[in-house]
Design a protein that fits this description.
Distance between the termini: 79 Å
Order of helices and strands: HHEEEEEEEE
CATH class of one domain: Mainly Beta
CATH architecture of one domain: Sandwich
Number of helices: 2
Largest sheet: 8 strands, antiparallel
Shape: elongated
Amino acid sequence: MVNKETAPRPWYKEFYVWMILFFPFSAMVVGFTMLRISLVTFDGLVVDDYYKRGLEINRSFERDKTALKYGLEGYLQANTNGALRLFLKSKETYPLPSQLKISFLHRTRKGFDQSITLQRQADVYVGNIAPLINGLWEIMLEGQDWRLDSIVNGKISEVKFFASEDFYKTTPQI
């Protein structure tokens, strides 16, 4: 005859079995979740043609020096609706172009980058962009043979552009 007190309980009613199985199952759940996140999102941090991009850096320094030669300075205003107004000054000998390209480059999320063409209306360049997320942005203003850069952390409402030889020698204060 079997005593009820000494009868073994079924394995699935034992606490220690579930405690031991908890860690492998939780590792599988977290692993599959991370796999799904990595397949669905794209961080865009790795560049396929890194050598070619490295060679282009020297050419971009020449464009910065050309902006310095023209004495270019810019002031960008952006409102919450995405309307942009750019005021650009130069030396009197340099005629300002009728349109400019402006690029908003997010430092870590390439999918949020935007580029538009600003049209000149009297003394101001105007254009519209989609709303930008908060974060660290590089704003690149380009003419035919020159370029101005600025780095902004946070909301983009007012940005100043200056042509400077020391731009790449200093680290921006964030």
